[in-house]
Amino acid sequence: DTGVSQDPRHKITKRGQNVTFRCDPISEHNRLYWYRQTLGQGPEFLTYFQNEAQLEKSRLLSDRFSAERPKGSFSTLEIQRTEQGDSAMYLCASRDFSEAKNIQYFGAGTRLSVL
Amino acid sequence: AQSVTQLGSHVSVSEGALVLLRCNYSSSVPPYLFWYVQYPNQGLQLLLKYTSAATLVKGINGFEAEFKKSETSFHLTKPSAHMSDAAEYFCAVTEPTGNQFYFGTGTSLTVIP
Predict the structure, then answer these.
(1) Per the CB < 8 Å rule, is A42 touching B9?
(2) What's the rounded Cα separation, in Å, for the pair A16 and A36?
């Protein structure tokens, strides 16, 4: 068990470019979550997957954002036509839905800077 | 609806002094409560959790928290601060069958030598 891993750790892009982040959850964790954390704030929920199904999306997830988990293992989060307001830390978390205590395990995050 | 309020965005303590970080929650159902710690440029690490068992919860690194339903609080304490405790601390609430965590805005802990 190597924990939740996210790639890349840092991404610098120009406004208007598309970016994609990857998250590898703890193996056999069937739930995967994406959060966004801006400076000085706590993480805010974006979306989550149960296996490959995306079951809930926050209103924070605009049309420029899309997340996938095609085989129920790793997930990608894509942001199209990035804006400066997208600059944030994007955190991925996973949990085992059968585990009763509802603990989410977080990755180290991808820090996005939009210039 | 659920929410968390962390009073004090910045807390400074002397090394060896008591650490007290405050968290109050709002929940329409009996909650699960968590404290996470975040070091610079890192993700969140679970410190401790309350999941409806014992109200006094012990976590890693000497931290503990007490769930007080009457006060809707889940304050984090540590008897003696260490320099390595300097970090950002987040309180979070969720429903037992909930799908997402609701985080507070965090408390930055500074430990003065």
Answers:
(1) no
(2) 19
